[in-house]
UniProtKB/TrEMBL annotation:
Domain ABC transporter: 12-244
The protein's name: ABC transporter ATP-binding protein
GO MF annotation, one: ATP binding
InterPro entries xrefs: AAA+_ATPase, ABC_transporter-like_ATP-bd, ABC_transporter-like_CS, ABC_transporter_ATP-bind, P-loop_NTPase
Keywords associated with the record: ATP-binding, Nucleotide-binding, Transport
Length: 273
C-alpha cells in the first residue's frame, strides 16, 4: 500500500475552524475562528485554560470529531484520509487501552489493523523499555496504575511510526522524573522519525522545553490567543533548559497565559466558596 504521506509537502493548515457541541451554548462555541499553521516536522504545543478546547482541536485534527465551519488540511490531505491510513498517532487525555488485551497485544493493536505498521513496526518489548516498563507485557490494563496505562498508550503511539503524532497531556499522570525521561524519549523519536507533533500540556516548562512554537489558547469561546516561537537551540540539553533564555521564554508564555485567562473567562464562571 502506498502511504498517503509519501508525496506530501505541507504541514497542518487550519482556517476559520469553528466547533459547537450539540447541546452546547451556541454563543460560546468550543472552538471559534481558529487559524493555525504547523510546519511539517515541527513540534508545537497547545497550552491554555481548562475547557479552552485543546482536546477538541486535537480530536478534530485526528479526524475523530466533526467541525462546523472552516478548513483543516493535513499535509495536503484530510484528517479522515490520514486517520483511515493510520498515519496519525493519538495519545488521548485518558489512555484508551482495550481491557481484554494484555499490554503487548495493546501495543501491537495498530499493526494488527494496519498492514504498513505490520511490516515495519517496532518491537513491543523495546517500546515498553523506552517508556520504562520492561516487565508488564503480559499484564492487563486493570493490573496497571494510571501512569503505567498512560505509558502503554504512549508506547503504542510511538510504535505506529505516525506521520503526525497528537498527544493530549500525555505525561500528566506521571511523576516528575519519569516525565523528564519520557520528554527526552519523545524528542529522540521526533528527531529520528521526522514526525510532526502537536502536544497538549498545562506545564509551561514542558511546552517551552519541547517545542518550536507554543500556541496559547483562550477559553469561552476557544480561540488562538497567541503563537510564541521558541528559539532555543537543539538539542535542548541541561545547559539550554537551565539558561536565562529558557527562563525568559517561560515568563513570556506565563504572561500570555495570564492575558488569555483575562481575555476568555467570564467573571461568573468561577464562584468563590
Ligand atoms: N462531548 C462533548 N459534548 C459537549 N461539550 C463538550 C464535549 N466535549 C467537550 N465539551 C466542552 O467543550 C469545551 C472544550 O472542551 P475540551 O475538552 O476540548 O477542553 P480542554 O481545553 O481540553 O480542557 P482540559 O484542559 O480541561 O482538558 C468545554 O467547555 C467542554 O465542556
Ligand atoms: Mg483536554
Amino acid at each position: 500500500m502506498t502511504h498517503p504521506s509519501t508525496d506530501l509537502t505541507d504541514g497542518i493548515r487550519i482556517r476559520g475552524l469553528t466547533k459547537t457541541y450539540a447541546g452546547g451554548d451556541p454563543h460560546r462555541p468550543a472552538l471559534e475562528s481558529i487559524d493555525l499553521d504547523v510546519g511539517r516536522r515541527r513540534f508545537v504545543s497547545l497550552i491554555g485554560p481548562s475547557g479552552c478546547g485543546k482536546s477538541t482541536l486535537l480530536r478534530v485534527i485526528a479526524g475523530l470529531e466533526e467541525h462546523d465551519t472552516g478548513e483543516v488540511s493535513l499535509f495536503g490531505s484530510t484528517p479522515r484520509a490520514l486517520c483511515a491510513a493510520k498515519a496519525i498517532g493519538l495519545v488521548p487525555q485518558t489512555p484508551a487501552l482495550l481491557p481484554w488485551r494484555n499490554v503487548r497485544r495493546n501495543i501491537t493493536l495498530p499493526r494488527s489493523v494496519n498492514r504498513r505498521a505490520g511490516t515495519d513496526g517496532e518491537d513491543p518489548d523495546d517500546l515498553l523499555r523506552a517508556v520504562g516498563l520492561g516487565d508488564v507485557a503480559h499484564r492487563y490494563p486493570h493490573q496497571l496504575s494510571g501512569g503505567q496505562q498512560q505509558r502503554v498508550a504512549i508506547a503504542r503511539a510511538f510504535g505506529m511510526r505516525p506521520e503526525l503524532l497528537l498527544m493530549d497531556e500525555p505525561f500528566s499522570a506521571l511523576d516528575e522524573f519519569t516525565r523528564e525521561a519520557l520528554r527526552l524519549q519523545l524528542l529522540v523519536l521526533w528527531q529520528r522519525r521526522a514526525t510532526t507533533v502537536v502536544f497538549v500540556t498545562h506545564s509551561v516548562r514542558e511546552a517551552v522545553t519541547l517545542s518550536d512554537e507554543v500556541v496559547v489558547m483562550s477559553a469561552r469561546p476557544g480561540r488562538v490567543h497567541e503563537v510564541l516561537p521558541i528559539d532555543l537551540p537543539r538539542p535542548r540539553d541541561a545547559s539550554v533548559v537551565t539558561g536565562p533564555r529558557m527562563h525568559a521564554l517561560e515568563d513570556r508564555v506565563r504572561a500570555s497565559l495570564q492575558s488569555a485567562w483575562e481575555a476568555g473567562a467570564a467573571p461568573d464562571d468561577l464562584v468563590p466558596l
